[in-house]
Amino acid sequence: VVSVNHGTGVATMKFKSPPVNSLSLDFLTEFCISLEKLENDRACRGVIFASAIPKIFSSGLDITEMCGKSTEHYTEFWRAVQETWLRLYGSNMVTVAAINGSSPAGGCLLALSCDYRIMVENPKFNIGLNEAQLGIVAPYWFKDTFVNTVGHRVAERSLQLGSLHPAPEAHKYGLVDELVPEEKLQEKAAAVMAQWLAIPDHARQLTKSMMRKAVLDRLVAHREEDIQNFVSFISKDSIQKSLRMYMEMLKKK
């Protein structure tokens, strides 16, 4: 759900894909289209990402898209994941994540790709790249984005353990920039957005590009190879088996 306030130049994009805002192929495709529309809207300078579903920001990549499907499907899905990150991490707009719940794996990547992250200060909510726990590996560009946020050592430990950090710990490590009570989340996101929009756009955009270009260029240069790596990895019997076991465990929950 996207709304644009033309007075302030700020859009709000609320994820609404019950039950847990899984990043399915449809979700990612719609996300990219919405983002592109906002990028092309001269009146829009910033976007706040939030979830319309309580207690969850996004549960990450939809595992059903990676289980028992064709090579063609895996290829199409992974291209959409790449496209989402390239657009969001490279966006000219100011991007603020208002994280109102847990945000594992791909959900964490969405938040990491924003300029600023505000999370509800509830220790029951957690965030992190927990791929290792599922028996899969976060791709290098997930890793790069993570390292750029929290530094090498925290990223190395967190990625190997597949850690999900409760909100206070996520804040301590710099994975999120700020914690606020739930009722203050939207207000805080608007205040942060105003602060970032007070900077001349061209200066902020060029600086952002300078900081992020090397990481973006690395994927752009190796996109097809990255897709091939994903497809051959995800197609392995052992990986399919651990994903199926993980899905069974989720069903029991």
TrEMBL record:
<comment type="subunit">
    <text>Homotrimer.</text>
</comment>
<keyword id="KW-0007">Acetylation</keyword>
<dbReference type="InterPro" id="IPR018376">
    <property type="entry name" value="Enoyl-CoA_hyd/isom_CS"/>
</dbReference>
<dbReference type="GO" id="GO:0005759">
    <property type="term" value="C:mitochondrial matrix"/>
</dbReference>
<comment type="similarity">
    <text>Belongs to the enoyl-CoA hydratase/isomerase family.</text>
</comment>
<keyword id="KW-0809">Transit peptide</keyword>
<keyword id="KW-0496">Mitochondrion</keyword>
<dbReference type="Pfam" id="PF00378">
    <property type="entry name" value="ECH_1"/>
</dbReference>
<dbReference type="InterPro" id="IPR029045">
    <property type="entry name" value="ClpP/crotonase-like_dom_sf"/>
</dbReference>
<dbReference type="InterPro" id="IPR001753">
    <property type="entry name" value="Enoyl-CoA_hydra/iso"/>
</dbReference>
<protein>
    <recommendedName>
        <fullName>Enoyl-CoA delta isomerase 1, mitochondrial</fullName>
        <ecNumber>5.3.3.8</ecNumber>
    </recommendedName>
</protein>
<keyword id="KW-0276">Fatty acid metabolism</keyword>
<comment type="function">
    <text>Key enzyme of fatty acid beta-oxidation. Able to isomerize both 3-cis (3Z) and 3-trans (3E) double bonds into the 2-trans (2E) form in a range of enoyl-CoA species, with a preference for (3Z)-enoyl-CoAs over (3E)-enoyl-CoAs. The catalytic efficiency of this enzyme is not affected by the fatty acyl chain length.</text>
</comment>
<comment type="pathway">
    <text>Lipid metabolism; fatty acid beta-oxidation.</text>
</comment>
<keyword id="KW-0443">Lipid metabolism</keyword>
<dbReference type="GO" id="GO:0004165">
    <property type="term" value="F:delta(3)-delta(2)-enoyl-CoA isomerase activity"/>
</dbReference>
<keyword id="KW-0413">Isomerase</keyword>
<dbReference type="GO" id="GO:0006635">
    <property type="term" value="P:fatty acid beta-oxidation"/>
</dbReference>
